[in-house]
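#struct-help
A.M.: can someone run this one for me? Single chain, 302 residues.
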Amino acid sequence: MFDSIESVEKSLLREKYIPDRSLATVLYLAWSLKKPLFLEGEPGVGKTETAAVMAKALNTNLIRLQCYEGLDANHALYEWNYPRQILAIKLGEECGTERELIGRTIFTEEFLIKRPLLEAILSAREREPVLLIDEIDRSDEEFEALLLEVLSDFQISIPEIGTLKAVRRPMVILTSNRTRDIHDALKRRCLYHWIDYPTLEKEREIIAARIAGISEDLARQVALFMKRLREEDLVKRPGVAETLDWASALLALEKQYLDEKTVEDTLGCILKYREDMVRFQDLWQRADFRDALLMDVMEKMC
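D.P.: on it. Structure tokens below:
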């Protein structure tokens, strides 16, 4: 599918995703070497979106495993469909089927509830999917150990069935917001890339590509404003996701440029913590701060 880094860049651009050269390079290597890719970065910089766009570019399925505290094998790999097994047993008994045959029948793939990891393994028999293991830093260390086994050989052993192995290796992308350190053993199995906040020009390009109908001037104003806002000491600096939400909101309100009232009315699109709202409103009372955000934007537009 991809024969060069440039082909990755072109494919992502067709999906309106603006990649850095370094990100396109590591994506190409992950795909060509069949190595998992570990993406870290602040929330909202586009880690999850990278996997979704890669699935579109490869014209394949995206299988997502959202990690959380307490995630275990039953929710990541598989479970037996007990109600369906009980029903099969009753039907078998009514039909006079031998108990041994019933036992063999109900422990087959047909009676498995496939969770994301098993689904990725079985899907790769036909066509390798993109497997997104999202926010691995939210899971427990025990789950990391389970993941090591799967990522090493991309196979799992089910006692009643045996070993199920992927014919092809799915493209695997793991993301982390760095809320805790991930074990070195897992990182060693992956390529690594840090996604930073975009540059001014890149963020403008992202807005223009993703928000249909937005003017070039407003896209640049929003990008300039966000770049300046991220310089403040906030609990959570807004990411690209917030930028796109805000640009969409401005467009929905039929705004063509930023002004004080528009910023005040739409602040909830970009700041998601009360502490940040209070801090921003305090700063907003100062003319020098407002000028730094709005005048600086307007001057750079000229």
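A.M.: thanks! The radius of gyration is 24 Å.
D.P.: also worth noting: Residues 84 and 111 are 7 Å apart (CA to CA).
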